[in-house]
């Protein structure tokens, strides 16, 4: 018997190179046995060497995609990634409220690893104002947490202080990714408003980390779609990304993608 079909929607940008964005999200959903659906906010011309072009879709085109999925396919969880502009953020926030989506994972994508901007600078305030209060889970990396809280983050204590600030800004669960921290040990933290939880792992010495943030947040989304708790979801996401970085595919001549086939439940 097939059993229940769990469904997740990603609202994000397309990465033609297949390692990040919509493509990473859908591959991760699929590997975790969740049916993936998408609303594309922007098309990027991108590969392992960087971002060669960014082409935002119209707000109307994104609204239509979200409506098409919502009225017929009722996702169990929703993830947002590259939203690019203030108008797009306002639209997505409006749709989340309209469809009363609760299991919403907001990955506050700002800059690709190569330095290309994926969010306009003037849209940061809209992200703070409209998306944070709707986020069941927010998954900033350290530089994104710095921008959102307007504070410098160097120590673990400062990461925790920033997580508290983000919680005060309306986020239910803050999951701060530790990839940009110092040293050989990576620490991802979760703050639930009362306590901190830590996931530690060895930093794998590789240049093939393109799409780690999207993949990690997508794994959390897939687990939430299946009804798992946030603690269980982060646990699986951490194990998913660890093996995906350990067993990279070694493709492309720059920063290659992670391996979305590596993890098995
Ligand atoms: N070199 C690495 N080895 C193992 N895990 C990594 C490595 N780089 C990043 N990760 C993990 O990938 C996830 C995303 O991390 P991070 O790099 O902080 O996000 P982003 O890709 O959004 O910048 C986190 O769980 C982090 O611990
Ligand atoms: C279309 C698109 N969306 C998001 C990103 C950023 O993805 P991330 O997982 O943070 O990976 P890096 O770009 O940092 O390697 C992207 N690149 N493209």
Automatic annotation (TrEMBL):
Matching entries from Pfam families are given as: Phos_pyr_kin (PF08543)
InterPro entries the record matches: HMP/HMP-P_kinase_dom, PM/HMP-P_kinase-1, Ribokinase-like
Q: Which residues form the Pyridoxamine kinase/Phosphomethylpyrimidine kinase domain?
A: 15-259
Q: Looking at the record's lineage, which domain of life comes first?
A: Bacteria
- Entry EC no(s): 2.7.1.49, 2.7.4.7
The pathway to which it is assigned is: Cofactor biosynthesis; thiamine diphosphate biosynthesis; 4-amino-2-methyl-5-diphosphomethylpyrimidine from 5-amino-1-(5-phospho-D-ribosyl)imidazole: step 2/3; Cofactor biosynthesis; thiamine diphosphate biosynthesis; 4-amino-2-methyl-5-diphosphomethylpyrimidine from 5-amino-1-(5-phospho-D-ribosyl)imidazole: step 3/3
Q: What EC class is this?
A: transferase
**In the UniProt record, does the keyword ATP-binding occur?**
yes
* UniProt xrefs under CDD domains: HMPP_kinase
Keyword annotations of the record: ATP-binding, Kinase, Nucleotide-binding, Thiamine biosynthesis, Transferase
Q: Which residues cross the membrane?
A: none
Instruction: Quote a single Gene Ontology cellular component term.
Output: cytosol
BP term (GO), one: thiamine biosynthetic process
Molecular functions per Gene Ontology: ATP binding; hydroxymethylpyrimidine kinase activity; phosphomethylpyrimidine kinase activity
Catalyzed chemical reaction(s): 4-amino-2-methyl-5-(phosphooxymethyl)pyrimidine + ATP = 4-amino-2-methyl-5-(diphosphooxymethyl)pyrimidine + ADP; 4-amino-5-hydroxymethyl-2-methylpyrimidine + ATP = 4-amino-2-methyl-5-(phosphooxymethyl)pyrimidine + ADP + H(+)
The reply on keyword Phosphoprotein is no
PANTHER family according to UniProt = HYDROXYMETHYLPYRIMIDINE_PHOSPHOMETHYLPYRIMIDINE KINASE THI20-RELATED (PTHR20858:SF17), PHOSPHOMETHYLPYRIMIDINE KINASE (PTHR20858)
Family according to the record: Belongs to the ThiD family.
**What protein name applies here?**
Hydroxymethylpyrimidine/phosphomethylpyrimidine kinase
Query: Which species does the entry assign this protein to?
Result: Anoxybacillus suryakundensis
Q: What is the lineage of its organism?
A: Bacteria, Bacillati, Bacillota, Bacilli, Bacillales
